[in-house]
Design goal:
Length: 80
């Protein structure tokens, strides 16, 4: 049986909640990952990075926080 190739490279950087993000979309306004995940736009970005990047992956705690934030947003009433 052939081994499945991992899509992640050996030089993968794990992104924790307090990892300082100063690349890509956040190069001009760096912030830590937790603050980025607090916004809907930041959550979309983090999901994209986790699913499409060969060099970055979200840590388990970051993934759990992301899911909690998405669940929280479903139950928060919009302000009028």
């Amino acid at each position: 049986m052939a081994k499945e190739k991992s899509k992640k490279s050996p030089n993968v950087k794990t992104l924790y909640l307090y990892t300082w993000i100063n690349f890509g979309k956040y190069k001009n306004c760096p912030n830590n990952l937790k603050n980025i995940l607090d916004t809907p736009e930041g959550r979309e970005w983090a999901l994209w990075i986790d699913g499409n990047s060969y060099y970055f992956q979200l840590a388990d705690t970051s993934k759990k926080y992301l899911k909690l934030q998405e669940e929280h947003d479903r139950y928060v009433l919009p302000t009028t």
